[in-house]
Design brief:
It is a single chain. The protein is mainly alpha-helical. The chain is built from seven helices and no strands. Helix 2 (about 20-30) runs antiparallel to helix 3 and helix 3 packs parallel to helix 5.
Amino acid sequence: LETGVWRPGDAARLFGPARDSPLLALEAATRAEPGDAALWADRGAAALAYARPADAAVSFSAVLALRPDLWHALVWRGRAYYEANDFPRARADLDAALARAPDDVAALVL
């Protein structure tokens, strides 16, 4: 799992006009496999792509609960908080990510 697997708009480009189909599919997948951190990460990235930052934050929180070692999820959740205008939480997550990986560009530029 790495930062940059999904970018805003990827799901829409991949799946065409059925805009919510990828997100709905990932929601179903995480219900079927709730212990799969990669599915939660994909769901979070898709939620960001569809401008649903609160849902994205929940998804990245699930990633961190399952795999606390995946510090990139802190960057993604920080981004979700930032897009939801929850700046204190965004900063806390980005600071935590920088503490783990001080050279991470994604955390530095957000």
